[in-house]
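ok trying this again, last paste got cut off
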Amino acid sequence: MAYAGVLDDIKKAVRLEKPGRLPVFACSEEFDVRMAGKIYCDYNSDAKVMSGCQIESIKKYDYDWAWLQVDDCIEFEVLGVGCKGGGNILPATCDYLPPTAETLKGLKMPDPEKDGRMPVLLEAISRIKEELGDTVCVTGRLAAPFSSVSLLYGMTETSMLMFDNPELIHETNKFFVEMQTMFGIAQIKAGADAIWVGDCNASGHLISVDQYREFALGPAKACHDAYREYGGLSIYHASEESIPHMRAQIESGFDVLSCGPGVEITDAKEAVGGEICIVGNIDPIKCLLEKDAEAVYEEAKRIAAIGGKSGGFLFNSGEMIPRDVPEENMIAMVRGARDAVL
């Protein structure tokens, strides 16, 4: 069961110290919704269902956080971006807005307390915090500014703008720094201890290190700096597997850097572990979905032991865990991370 003192242990890890007990996380929403017998489109639009699933899963599977990633559409559907999904299919953005100065000028700053599903997320955060208090790290979510630009205009169009109209990216970044700062602070005020800042469209899978520094680094740092003023921790996630990109991401100043599943934890620790707390990174597909429980246990134990032996580490999956992962594998993952000798 989640425990009193987890927030102190996370803060120790952020200071690159060894926590008294290694916090164990899981990017497990799809799996948790399935195991709770719910439909995802109900989960992501109803604060009672959302918070209830989180609380039930934490008690059942022994996670040390409540992770409310939900889906990538929350901020963008209120701006007029198209979204598709339904049933147990997570909504995804589509029908992007034209990448023009006129589009940017016409954007209306949303109100997190009133618009779309933003209030649903805030209410779910408050409900979990009220129920579980400081025995878990309640973790909200949003898209970093550059990824927000690409979710507004589309990744292909945004990639072209880097060459054809970089100024539009910079100006749209300014809009999203303001918007995502406001949305993050609203989540912290609602009870979030940390904010998961997703920036997968700024990863080494899609842009170079130089492009990252030009378009993504500064805006992401601006958001982090604002969350810190309000006492919220920030976790930066680009599903990153490129060591040079990780080195650049350190400059954002985030409290915790998430490692994607494709980087060996030993390499990540050697490259950046002495400068920033890292979180990761068991593979949700190649290990959790495809291996048996014994193999999952051993891999979780290995990652936790390597990551945690010198401090500055939190255990997690490297990406979202598929809904069809066997239950025994999730139990084995948490048990393996708990049993690691640090």
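PB: full thing came through this time. Residues 166-190 form the longest helix (25 residues).
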